[in-house]
Amino acid sequence: MFSTLVFRLSADIFCDLRHANASLLINMGVPVKVISEHLGHSDTRTTETIYAHVFAETMVQASSAISEAIATADV
Question: CA 21 to CA 4: how far, in whole Å?
Fold first, then answer.
């Protein structure tokens, strides 16, 4: 029973580390294709939809970038 619990805990931690790895790399601007290959995914959609999570700070940076682009556009 204990060994089953340890194995399950280890599997959960491993899965969490894979998600954290993908999320950190996405938020650092590493291309999804590179991350997908790094994780051994055959399809980038797996990486994008299951593993990669965008951080709030990255969303703020994206909003700031578009706001600046609009403010400085020659219209």
Answer: 26
